[in-house]
Amino acid sequence: MKNIAVFASGNGTNLQALIDAIENGKIKNGRIKVVFSNKKDAFALERARKHGIEALYMDAKSAGTREDFDRLLAEEMNKRCIDLICLAGYMKILTRNFIDAFKGKIMNVHPSLLPSFGGEGMHGLNVHKAVIGYGAKMSGCTVHFVDYGTDTGPIIVQECVAVDDDDTPETLQQKILPYEYSAYTRAVALFCAGKLAVEGRKVRVKK
Question: Is domain 2-109+142-156+184-205 classified as CATH 3.40.50.170?
């Protein structure tokens, strides 16, 4: 059984999708051991409590440097024997030491087809504004492993969504969200089943 930690800073809709997928059996051999947030009032923590999952809040300002905070956070994850960390709207950049401590064990979902429309500042509606402004005909979402860059890690799963002429950033966001949920569920299910192998930049699904 893989122990999963979900990091969230806000509402936690991707968290809810993962909770639902575990409860309905779409994700086997995995359980969410803890939901962590750097925001005390994040609704993601309430979602965790409603499902009997530990809700952990830590104030980054009380820990000194970013490195100090991530060191304490890594200690908390190790106490709980965490096998996989899922970023679900976690609005803090992880430090290199934290990423090294959980190399190949941190996933993130991004609302575009990476490597397009990723990088610094590309989150939330900013992504969809950029997609529409560029005139792209297709968008979607990407689940990837986290590395030192922003949205640059090896790609696990992608889903495509057509961009219609009358789409706004808001409508495009709503079209893509269900695909984020299904893509994240699939990526986590594959990880928990031991079927993911990273070879350089490529993530292969073992049979």
Answer: yes
